[in-house]
Input
Amino acid sequence: MKFSPVLWIYSWIQWALDRLLSPTPPPPNARLSRPRIAVIGAGLTGVAAASHCVGHGFDVTLFEAGDENSIGGIWSRVNNTSGLQIHSIMYRFHPSVHWSKGYPDRQQIVSQITQLWRRYGLQERTKFNTRVTSVTQDGQGRWIINNPSNGRFDGVIPAIGSCGDPKMPHMENQEVFQGEIYHSSRLDGKTAQGKKALIIGGGASAVEALEFVVHTGAAKTSVLARSEKWIIPRNAIIDSLLAFNIFGQETMFSWIPEKLLKIFFYRDLEDLAPQHEGLFTETPMVNSDIFHQIRQHKAEWLRGDIVRFIPNGIIFNHRARGVPKGGPGRQDEVKGDMVIMATGFTRPSLSFLPKECFQSPYEPPNWYLQTFPPEHTSICANNCTRKFPHWHLHAPASRVPSRSSDSAFPVLDEEVDRHDEMDKSKGTNRSVRLFHLL
Output
């Protein structure tokens, strides 16, 4: 492997972060004396949360519905060719993570999660093949996971993520299509060599599927997208600069990066940029190759709606820029002999939590910090709910205005005040100890 001074420096920075910030793993078979925590899900978030808890002396049990091969969550179930769209410096889920390259693939990501799981002795604390169906409280307010035989806990961290099973919607006349149909997460062992590939969807999964079919030799590729999404270059400096928008939403200055992207990145393909949606209204896609493929006529990006399948392709309603989904357009046949459904994943359900967690108007994601249900602040639902702008998420910590005037983002005023009071009491409440820990 060729020596890279940048990666060498990056490696030393990661080593320093590990030494300075990683909590000390407990010795084998240690009896941890701090409150008992149940972590639900052995994906990236669950393993990271459990390792932090154990490293700070909390007695943890990790519940996972699958077997040991499920460690890593969604990363354990996607294609081997899958990898990070953003630079790994922005994907540090634990201080001890050591990336060997800027854009690691699925194998390295799962490897880092598994190493973290082992480093903090979570093997002896994980219950595999245990799907959580209920979380209830006993008379003393301790949490029971499924049944008392699993123990009783002082706090619960649901870490089930936002990606469940592959979403495969059935479309009109789909059964008459004479070619192959795959979900974008099920492409291992497949090839698009010499084929006309049709990719249904316009999100990150579609970009990843496009990379797959182009690099496996597809004769032609058409992406059939219902709307435009912002695409930003795969460049650590540019992506980091965009991430410095601490408000996490559109501001009066958002037009500046949007204009620069159109001039220097989109260039002649500006028609593919969103017309009415701002860069910070949702998560952009990160890819530097897609426009090159379009300019080389190896791929095309079509805006419109699927009408129906035909034996040798799809009837597609092309819409002009600015015409809403389902609006008028021009119908045309898009020929293909391979369809990839880049239609995402179902969202895992939090329905195992007590019903009080779902009472209007504070059902998820309208919990305090989108994490703590107002009725049960010893539950910390980590990375399970829809994301809101950063200024709302970090209001109490940063002391920016903690009351929202936007009815779409209700802030739990009583919970903000309660958190501030508990913060002043130096962590006497279990839920606050969890909050500061994570």
Notes: The CA atoms of residues 172 and 308 lie 5 Å apart. The domain at 174-341 is CATH 3.50.50.60 (FAD/NAD(P)-binding domain). The radius of gyration is 24 Å.
